[in-house]
Structures are given as structure tokens and as C-alpha cells.
Amino acid sequence: MYDTIVYNSPKLIGHIMKKYTALILLFLTVSVFASEIEKKQIIPDLKVKLMDGQKVTIHELLKDGPLLIDFWATWCKPCKKVMKHLNQYHLDYANKGFKVLMINQDSPRSMGKVKTFIRSKKFDFLIGLDPNQKLAKKLNGLIMPTLILVAQDGTIQWRHQGYMPGEEKEIEYQIRLLLGLESESLENNKL
Amino acid sequence: MKKYISLFFLSSLFSAEFDYNASIISNFGDNYDFYSYAENQLNLNLFYKDIEAWVQYEYSNPPEIGFTMNDIRKFRIEYSQDDYTVKLGDIYEIWGRGLVLNQFDDQSTNFDNGIRGLFLGYEKGPLTLNHISGNAEIWNFGPDLRTPYYNNSHNVIANHIQYDWASYSLGVSQLLSKEVHQKVFGSDAYVNHSLKGIHGSWTLNNADIYLEYVDKISTEKLNLLYDGPHDSLKTGHGFYGNMNFYFGNFGLSTEYKRMAFDVGHSDFTADDYGNRIAFQAMPTLGREQNSTLLGRVAHQFNFNDERGVQISLNGTLLNVNIVSQYAHLSRNEEWQSLTLFNWINSSIEGYLPSSDPSALPYWENYHEINGYHLNDKLYFKLGRGENKDILKTLRYFEGEGISVNETWIHTDSTEWQDDWVYLDSSLVGVDTFVYKVESKMWQVSKAITYPLELSYSFNNGYNLAINFEYQEQTKQNISKGNSKLYSTSDSSWTLINPDNPDSFFVQKDNLFSYGTKQIDTQINRLVSLTIGNASKWSITFTHDQTNAFSGPTTIDPFYNPLEAFIYGDLKYFTGKRNKIDPPGFIQNRWVSMEVAYNLTSSQRISILYGSLQGGLYCSNGVCRQIAPFNDGIKLSYSAIF
Fold first, then answer.
1. Cα–Cα distances in Å, from B348 out to A173, B59, B334?
2. Residues 54-73 of A with CB under 8 A from B
3. Which residues pair with residue B442 across a beta bridge?
């Protein structure tokens, strides 16, 4: 058994290919068309409850300019690492109407600590609360962190899952590109 | 029905009027233990004017945990206009902090308490009204770690009203459920649950407060042929309070809970019913850890019978982030074992948790500093976590015993042929001797863990990260007192030295061992090294090592090339090693390598090769034991579009 599984990896891959041909085809289709599909999508006008008690909709937040949505939780390590950079972009590009909306997915288990965490860090970006992942499911933000960059007209310009140190440059590049502060020709060098 | 749903979604995809998004998550795994799985999920959201729809299709054969499926797993259609919302399908709502209703679908623990039915909502200004009615099938695990066994069916009607002022909020909720409860022994139980809850909050500039209370009554239908009222079964209540204070760069969070839906001196089983129902997923008051080793020593919270306090401090000092947390929990009752099987309880005085081992107390504290240096290129984190958990009590008696000595005299007797024929006697004195009896035995786990993380980002986009976690854990049976046994023949605790009742002892038996050798302290070390190129790829090597097991010692019968490479074993590659009779140094170690690649910014694929230790995994207060994954391959793909 060991030999068949561990040493004959091609056999395993063949087994997977045979059994899941339809799904693999679906993934390949998605891979090819994903970038095209992205640009045509309009973000739905979902209601968001902010940490300060205000209720807004995503389209209301887009009135002044583009919006970067990020899904996070207090127990998510990479989410906390990227926050510092996102707060900086929220401040740096505020004069262009740009905002960052951080949608928190802490369950009631750790919800009590969300406010103290945010207020102790003195972050300026907007905090939305989504304790049972209603928004995350509607915007496919269940993998954390997931970033969604939305243009002022509501079209989704860019999506990104996960965060590794150094990716903040790519995030800033995408924001600048959307704000017209970066040359489009460089885009090909980026993911 | 599902056919029509599929047709609706497929036709909608081709309509230009619809906006949509979707995600795919696929996981495959196979290893020498036949622990193979293949799970695929497609989530599709559609948006058309005031209508939203969601469908989740799953093809799993079999999934990592759960049931094999090739069907629409979840769906929902929502219609919102002005202040009204109607939802049909799988409903997931949360009211307050979840003492009455907190619904989620957590695939990592296979916990799903969603209701399939109808949701009606009205929201105008500060007023919110919600109604839910429908059915839920909730599954719990039995003896098998991968396939759920026990089923609880609920027919639910629930209502919630909330009013939000500027800085105040007040809500009331009600939930009625008719449950068919599957038991371990005997036929199903038919139970009605009635919950009434109230929650409120008050926000100030530098502080806020949140309080929630729920009252619960359950009744049982004992005679299925009789259509009369149910017999009363259990009553209970739950309370949760949270106060936060903010000063400068610091925030202090304090929490208190008291969940009293049942009482018990040991774990609850499927035969304990009528207590808290699965819709009640309330705050647990323990830190939600993101360290692997701390996660393995997590406390298994008891939603039926537990009280506790938690204090946590978050702050920033000299550009260094500080986290400090302390929690103390216990059951609501202290217990005495009058015999080995007859336990009686007494309520803990006051509101705070007890430290008495019979109340199964748990303590944890965690302290961490983290921050950035060298122009934000270097990230560091250093933590220290300490847990002490009384896992169970095997006997727990502290009282008094009485020794009775009687003095008799013999009078008026007759002797015949050297035998006494008549013997008259009378009791002339009784001496009683009262002595202290103590017979206690409990199981305790103590762990100290140090998680360390360093990562550095280079200018060219590359980054290097090292995670190191070190843990020392002890697990012992502690016996204490002057008695170890209970004698049923004379209904008393048998002293270890009847001639000297003051012979008290304390004995500690270590529960960790390696093979046949007992080990005092289990030492765990987890090292992972990640090299990555931002936005493109990353490679992670993980080395997990222990020196002892609390159960049987696991044996890795195979030797894979990754293990040989990590240990620099040239004999393996020159064919001088017998691969099915590996050297001793690979035992009690788990080595893996994971390569992750971002196909695009929204598509990621990863391949893991090697072994993972497994162990306790907890999420949202729901825990499960994950089986080890040995010498195998895992393949994961995720995409959002």
C-alpha cells in the first residue's frame, strides 16, 4: 500500500484525474476565464453593520471613491500582519476618496476582544461586523484574509486570497492602479 | 426540488441581468493508513435586483470528515424590498452573542446547526424584527472520528426583536424546538425546548458593556401513545457579560459567563439530553489560539455547566504590541463521591469559578509581544502560554469515619463437658473513635508553551519566516488522602493503615510514556521554515517532534525520502536502508513539506507531502480529534471568481 501511494505519485494523480475529470475540467475553465469574469462583476449592495453601531451599504461606501474590502479575525495571524499596511493605505489615499473596510468574522467566542484590539491599535479604517459570516459567504471571503478591491462604479477590479510579507507592495500597486496613480503597462509584471 | 434549483442557477448564469460570484474549494488526500479523502465544494451567489440566491454543491467521496455526498448541499433564495426581507432555504442567523441562537456551518469540525426553512425580517430605523421557522438535522460524532453518528432533529420556531438607540441597544428573543434526540442506549427521546432570552448593550466613549441572559425549560414526551402534556425534564439558564475599557493605546476586555443548563461531574453524553441545544453556541471564555501546540492543549469547554471569568489586555508600547490574557473557569457545582458511584453535588458559593478539583477548574494565561522592526521588514512575535486543566475526577471524598468498639461481659453461664452451654452477656460500654477520611483522585494536565515567530521581507519580494514552538506538558493522576478504596460490604472507605488513620499520602502517577517507559514531562517542539516569493509561491518545511504519548506509542512503519533528506541520511539514497524497517530516529517525529502556488491572485494550489501529527482541533468551542496523517499527499485548490 505504501508503495502505491507514496512512491507511485503519478498513479495517485492518474487516479484523481480519472475520478474527477469533470471537476478538473471545471477548474481549468475557471482558471482560463477567471480574470475575464472578474472585471465584469458588480459588487452587490449588501448591508454592513459597522463597529460603531452605524448601518451602511457597500454602495453607500463607494459614493466618495474606491473601496478595499478585507475579511479578518483576531485569531488570524496573516490578517493581523496586513492590517498595519491597509491602515496606511486608508490614510495615504483618503484624499482620493479611497477607503478600507475590514470585515471582522470573529464568532461570539472572541467578539468581546475585537473592539479592544482595534481601539488599542488606533486603526482608522472602517470595521464591519460579520459574526456568522453572512457577508463572507456572499462575497466569498471565507478564506482569510481575502481582499476585494472595488472601483467607485461598483466593479470588482481585483481579488486576492492570503497574505505573505511583501505582498503589501502588490496591494498598494493595485490601489494606485485603480486610482490612476500607476502606469497600466507595469501590470503585466504583476500577478 | 434540487433539480429545479440547479436549473434556476444554471439558467441565471447565462443571463446578462444577473451578477454573480463563486468559489471552489477542493481537497484531496491519501496516505498509507487508507486515510484518503476527496472533497469538492462549489459556492455560487447570484444577485438580481432585490433577489439574492446562494447554492452550495458538494462532491465528496469521501470527505475528510462527514458523509459522502454528490448533491446540492445548501441553498437559499432571499428577497429584500424596502424594510422587508424574506429568505427561503438554509438559514444562518446570530442573535446577540449566541446564548439563544448562533448558527454556523464549520466544515473543519463538521458542525452545522443551520435551519432549512423560512426567515422573515423587518428592519426600519432602530427596530429589527426577525422570525425563523424550519427544521434542522444536527449530527454529532460517536466512536468514529470521521463519520458522524448521533442525529438530533429539531423543528424550530424562533423570534427576535431588537431596538437600537444611539448608544443603547435592547433585544429579546424566543426559540421553541421540538427535538427527536438519538440516544446511546434505548429508543429516541422526544423533547420540547423553550428558550427566552434578553440582551442589551451600552456604549460610552471609553467603555462599553454587554449583557445577555437566557432562560430554558425542557419537557419530555414519555408516553408516545398519550397526546397530553409533556413531563418536565430540565430547567436551566445562561448569563454572559462583557465590559471593555479603553485608555490611550490600551484596551481591557473583561468577560463573565455562567452556563447552567445541566449538572455533571464528568463529560456529558448523548444520553444526557434536555439541556443546552446545538443552536446555543455562546462565548466560551478561552483564548482562540493561533499556535499549533497551544491548540493541542485547548480546554474542552462545557456549554451545559460552566462558569468563568476572562480578562485580556491589548496595547501598544514603544511600537511593540502587547497581549496579555487570563481565564479561570470551572463547573457550577463541587462534587463528593459518597461511594465510587454515588456522587452528590453542592453549589459553589458566590458567582466566581471554583479552584476545587471536584469542580473541574481550568486556568489559562497567555502573554505575547509582537511588532515590526528594520523599516517594517522584520516581524517578530514571542509568546508564553500556560494552561492547567483538571480533566476528570475519579473519586473525591472528604469526610469522617467512625470506628465503634463494644465492651461485653459474660455472666451466669453453665459449663458442661468442658463447653460453655449458656453464655449470658451484656454490653457494658461502647467506645467510638471518629477519624478523618480523605480519598481523592483526579487527573490534571499542565502545559507551558512558548511560540516564537520571525519573518523577514527582502526588497526583491522574497521572504523568509521561521516559526518555533516549544512546549512542556505533564499529565498526572493525583491521589491524595488516607484511603484508596471503598468497601461496599461495610459501607465505608477502607483506610490504607487502619491502625493509624492519620497516615495521609499524596501520590502522583505520570500518564505520559514512550513504549513501556514512563516519562515525567512531554516535550514538544514544532519548527517550520517558510521561504516565499510574495504573491507567487511559498515552500514550507515543518518538523514536529515529541518525546512521549499519553496513549499508546505510535509507530511509523515507513521511511519516506523527505524524512531521509531532513535527517541527512545518505544510506537511504544509496539503497542501504530498509524502507519498511526505518531507523529509530524517525519515530515520534512528523515531517512535511508544502508547496503553495498562486495561479492567479484569486486562485491558489498547494501540495503537501509527508506526515502530520493530528491531535485536538477546536473551532468555535467545538473540538474534535484529528487522526494522524502519515506518509501521504494532500492536494488543495481554492479559487474565487
1. 59, 50, 6
2. none
3. B393, B478
